[in-house]
Amino acid sequence: MATGRTHRPATRSRGIPEATVARLPLYLRALTALSERSVPTVSSEELAAAAGVNSAKLRKDFSYLGSYGTRGVGYDVEYLVYQISRELGLTQDWPVVIVGIGNLGAALANYGGFASRGFRVAALIDADPAMAGKPVAGIPVQHTDELEKIIQDEGVSIGVIATPAGAAQQVCERLVAAGVTSILNFAPTVLSVPDGVDVRKVDLSIELQILAFHEQRKAGELAAAGTVVPAVAARQESAAVRRGTAVGQESVADQGPDGDVPAVMPT
Amino acid sequence: MATGRTHRPATRSRGIPEATVARLPLYLRALTALSERSVPTVSSEELAAAAGVNSAKLRKDFSYLGSYGTRGVGYDVEYLVYQISRELGLTQDWPVVIVGIGNLGAALANYGGFASRGFRVAALIDADPAMAGKPVAGIPVQHTDELEKIIQDEGVSIGVIATPAGAAQQVCERLVAAGVTSILNFAPTVLSVPDGVDVRKVDLSIELQILAFHEQRKAGELAAAGTVVPAVAARQESAAVRRGTAVGQESVADQGPDGDVPAVMPT
DNA sequence: ATGTGTGAAGTACTTCACAGCC
DNA sequence: GGCTGTGAAGTACTTCACACAT
Fold first, then answer.
1. Which positions of chain D lie under 7 Å from any protein Cβ?
2. C-alpha pair distances (Å), A111 with each of A60, A92, A115, A230
3. How far is B48 from chain A (nearest CA, A)?
4. Were both Cys, which of A71, A113, A253, B248 would link to B205 (CB 3.0–4.6 Å)?
5. Is the domain B94-202 a CATH 3.40.50.720 member?
6. For A11-68, how does the pLDDT look when each residue is reduced to its tens digit (9 = 90+)?
7. Which residue lies nearest C3, CA-to-C1' measured?
């Protein structure tokens, strides 16, 4: 089943746009920070600023969840935190496995943001027998042979792949065969998965290349404008000038949420 | 519009859609793999499959760059590699600094994909004096005090922030003041930057939360269909409780580096 | 024949702007 | 008066489908 169109039966409330879903964690982080400061209510304007989006978008986003605000007043912080958490599925515990405990995998294991918000590192898995038993971030690394057993025993449905590119597809297939239905892929490879499995990728080199594209364009524009900037000169502030240009837009204006106690990342 | 005289030849990099720019690195990677296998030409269908997109989208994307294909034949691999590289600005060298050499920063420094493709780690910077001089990935770490000097001396325009969230905004401001105009942010914080500065973020916990959202939805659908998936069954039990309206106590606390998670929330 | 390049149609997302409730 | 919630308008992106070059 599920082949072809995933029509949504227009069942009213259950059609949250993907773009909205992607922003909910941002709002949640901003709200959590407010909550920690014991701020009771917040307006769409304030919250939007904290989350780095505009207020109309935020209100529209929230409208997909329901009417959780009060006109003339704003949103109750605690209540919203709860509603968004629930919507995101964070009121339950999600055991996660990390496969590939190299530099990156170890860094991820140590990343505190992991442990927070309902995610729990259930196991670290690596193909190197020499790694087996060694603790990383306090968790003993297990050999790939155990992969299927671990996933079943722990009821893992989310897997993180931090292996070299060459191993990623194979690891992915084993994860999926064992029951994982969501994958976060750090390997620079396109993974192919069966229908019903979600994959999200995090790719450093792609991000850098996108930045390089815009960087190059800026250099071109400056040159065309007769400005001489060896990338080291003073900053320019032609804020008003680039208003109507479609060029770089403020595309990259979105951002990670705001303050919230970090995790670890030593140093 | 008969002739292409008065009109924009489209063959210019005049406003390539952001979504297209974000896919160019993907195409480039697939093309590079083909190039290494000495494949001379490729069709939109084949290349699209390798990049994980559909062929119409790929052709549309390429049409923004110009007409680099041959009807009835396909695209010349080497030629396309060059054109895309040029478009992305990868034919020049981009010195990059990484600020925050903790687990993640070190992992990034060691990441090979960095060195390839025109990016060069010009310096590693950390606030911890004890780190100074220590080599990571063969590059000696320098103290934050040197930040401005390094950026100017090396002509750095791209900075990577891998510090704890609390330090990110400040580091960002120093980078920008020193001349950096593109930032890749790994810290879980919204950075605010002046106009003209691009920021892209990579946020593990946001990605996980998005996956959790879809995962929860799948669980709901399966339950509704009466289906039972083996690996999911174990977790299902605890998941079943979710519908309760226990507002008071959420597991969505904040980050506890580990150990104690404030039970009484939020704050 | 075959596969690109692209208008046109379709879909998704954003922003506007204002009615309605506090 | 202030601020939410939302139709309507606007913009960005995707997919279709086919003319046209080789």
1. 1-7, 12-17, 20-22
2. 32, 20, 8, 37
3. 11
4. A113
5. yes
6. 344 689 999 999 999 999 999 999 999 999 999 999 999 999 999 999 999 999 999 9
7. B72
